[in-house]
Specification:
Blueprint lengths: L1 H10 L17 E8 L1 H14 L6 H11 L13 E7 L7 E7 L5 H9 L3 E5 L4 E5 L10 E7 L2 E5 L2 H10 L13 E5 L1 H18 L8 H19 L1 E11 L2 E10 L4 H6 L19 E6 L7 H14 L6 H16 L1 E10 L8 E8 L2 H25 L6 E7 L3 E3 L2 E12 L1 H6 L7 E7 L4 E5 L3 H13 L9 H6 L9 E6 H16 L13 E8 L3 E8 H29 L8 H14 L5 H5 L7 H10 L1
Antiparallel strand pairs: 1-2, 1-8, 2-3, 3-7, 4-5, 5-6, 6-7, 8-9, 9-10, 10-21, 11-12, 11-19, 12-13, 13-18, 14-16, 15-16, 16-17, 17-18, 19-20, 20-21
Helix pairs in contact: 1-7, 2-3, 2-16, 6-7, 7-9, 9-10, 10-11
């Protein structure tokens, strides 16, 4: 989903946010933490720790969780009750927060348990506000805790004012956070900006006020600060749910827009990606993602306002005419995007370490292709201009050239080459495994464009799949189906990454160049990481990874450590060196010497420092004997 995130942040720069009305006597809620049963969380944490190779007993995890709340299992808090922590604006620089505890008997059993554990009840007000003081060493976050009884909920806060504010905030909280898992977290970016915009802007701005930075860098930094704040204003909620179920680690996320904003309008246009996006899902692909980006024209005005401001903040020596041409070409390209995109990572080779494939749906490919020479020249002019105006010489420059076109099955195929022009220092450290140029073929298939860095054979295979309709969607992959046996309908983004295969492939490529064996450190199997996204009151996303693969990582780490220890021990044995911590030989030698001499070692002898001895020099004669 990196493409989603980058697009959203860059496109919402100057859009206004519409914040919902808040009651005058209710605090602004900034975020929530939800634990859906302390025992359930402890059980999942145990399963995860076991998979990682360091099992921590569930009982021990439970003791830690309950202890953080000042109690013990079975003492006033239901094992499967939902514990919440709510953060809110209380007028201070850091905000306030409170804990909402599920209790029986209005918390009488829980409070009695606190008393048994040494807590002191200092006071109680007429409206039922209790002040407790924790004993030294209680292991809780607050020494002073204020409680409010509210039926099946006991509110706890660090101050009396925070307790009352949390009480006022309760009606504003959702019944449950809209993501799955044993634990869920919600952040409310728009509310955070409303509450802390001056502090956030000041802190972010300081990062770009280094006097050694040129003025253009400071201006761009200020623009990025405004960009992030403007984007945050349009995000009502960001939710994250974590859980262990069905043998998998499950991550469930949601991004919900503020009603009436450009982000909200854009989300309404996102739909399932077309079948054509699966063109890039070649049988040997290490990773694939297919998605739909909705109606991008809704984001275009804000995106280009940001881009124009960014360009104007760059060194003033840039040719205004060249800048205008560049912006015009960018707008032409953007206007042709139809929303569907497919991306794939293919196995590397010595000749082409970075092998990628991409499909982009276009409204009118002919318009874009006709602009190709002008767009390439415009990009070259911009890069040369920025290099001339840079405060320091750039270690390399990039020049794009357009090669001779070819045709395959009636489809026009163009070739672009990115050539990295390196200075002397950069050329000396440039990795030999990576060529100083990158060839990209562009095949203008019906309805879109296929781009590939993997060579002509791969380009032709992609064209075949586009023309013959033989592409298989990511959702049909057995690996994807294994982790998503019951997927939601109308998925707008699906992804597959064979994580172990990808890491192993690149390490093996490095091994082939330098004679190493790092690929052996990767666990067996593919290590599949499978994702999906759908629209439901915002953008929902799921990411799943098998606990068995997490276990494989832990086992491989142990295996590598054991081999390293064995190799070290073998080397030390060959040198006649006793490993640290192994004093069996030393004890045997000492006992033998004492028996032979019949002498006891006195205290004075123990305190006398021994002369320095070179272990290797002493080991050689011993080995010879």
């Amino acid at each position: 989903m990196n493409k989603w995130n980058g697009l959203v942040l860059s496109a919402l720069i100057l859009c206004a946010a519409l914040l919902p009305a808040q009651a005058a006597d209710s605090p602004l809620v900034l975020g929530l933490l939800e634990i859906r049963g302390l025992d359930s969380l402890a059980a999942s944490a145990f399963e995860l720790s076991k998979a990682a190779g360091s099992p921590t007993p569930k009982e021990m995890i439970s003791m830690v969780l309950y202890g953080a709340l000042g109690t013990m299992p079975g003492m006033g808090l239901p094992a499967e009750g939902t514990v919440r922590a709510v953060a809110f604006d209380n007028g201070s620089d850091n905000g306030g927060w409170a804990i909402l505890l599920p209790v029986a008997n209005e918390g009488a059993d829980y409070l009695a348990g606190l008393g048994q554990n040494g807590w002191k009840n200092e006071s109680e007000t007429a409206d039922g506000l209790l002040h407790y003081v924790a004993p030294d060493g209680a292991g809780v976050a607050w020494k002073d805790v204020y409680f409010l009884k509210r039926g099946a909920t006991l509110l706890a806060a660090q101050t009396a004012d925070d307790a009352r504010l949390a009480d006022a905030a309760q009606p504003l909280l959702p019944p449950i956070l809209p993501v799955e898992g044993d634990m869920a977290i919600q952040i409310r970016p728009a509310a955070l900006v409303e509450a802390f915009a001056p502090q956030i802007a000041e802190q972010m701005d300081q990062a770009f006020k280094n006097p050694d930075l040129p003025a253009s860098s400071a201006a761009m930094g200020d623009l990025y600060v405004k960009a992030y704040l403007a984007a945050a204003k349009q995000m009502e909620e960001c939710d994250l749910g974590l859980g262990v179920a069905d043998g998998n680690l499950n991550i469930h996320t949601r991004v919900a827009p503020v009603a009436g904003t450009a982000l909200a309008q854009w989300f309404q246009t996102v739909k399932p990606a077309s079948a054509a996006t699966a063109i890039v899902a070649l049988p040997d692909a290490l990773g694939v993602e297919t998605m739909n980006l909705g109606d991008l024209s809704l984001l275009a005005p804000a995106y280009f306002q940001f881009l124009e401001k960014l360009m104007s903040a760059m060194p003033s020596g840039l040719d205004p005419a060249a800048l205008a041409r560049y912006m015009d070409n960018e707008k032409t390209c953007y206007a042709q995007l139809a929303g569907d995109i497919g991306l794939a990572l293919l196995p590397p080779t010595k000749e082409i370490p970075l092998r990628l494939a991409e499909y982009v749906a276009l409204k009118d490919a002919a318009i874009l292709r006709a602009r190709m020479p002008e767009m390439i020249q415009s990009n070259n002019d911009m890069m040369k201009g920025m290099a001339r105006e840079a405060s320091q010489p750039m270690p390399f420059q990039v020049e794009i050239t357009l090669g001779a076109p070819r045709e395959y099955r009636g489809v026009a195929v163009d070739k672009m080459t990115y050539a990295f022009q390196l200075d002397e220092k950069m050329a000396a450290i440039w990795p030999a495994a990576f060529p100083a140029k990158l060839d990209i073929e562009l095949a203008w298939v019906p309805g879109g464009l296929v781009a590939s860095t993997a060579g002509a054979a791969t380009t032709d295979a992609l064209v075949d799949r586009a023309l013959d309709g033989t592409a298989t969607p990511v959702t049909a992959l057995p690996a994807w189906q294994a982790l998503h046996p019951e997927p939601e309908a109308n998925l707008v983004d699906v992804s597959h990454l064979a994580l172990f295969d990808a890491v192993r492939a690149y390490l093996a490529l490095g091994d082939s160049l330098n004679g190493g064996n790092r690929a052996e450190y990767v666990p067996a199997g593919s290590g599949n990481l499978e994702g999906s996204s759908y629209i439901l009151a915002g953008l929902m996303s799921r990411l799943r990874f098998s606990l068995a693969d997490i276990s494989a990582i832990g086992e491989k780490i142990k295996e590598v450590q054991a081999k390293a220890e064995a190799a070290m021990r073998q080397q030390m044995d060959a040198q006649g060196v006793t490993p640290l911590g192994d004093d069996s030989e030393a004890e045997t030698w000492s006992d033998a010497e004492s028996a032979e001499t019949g002498a006891d070692i006195g205290e004075e002898e123990i305190q006398t420092p021994a002369p320095a001895v070179d272990v290797q020099e002493e080991a050689a004669p011993a080995a010879a004997e």
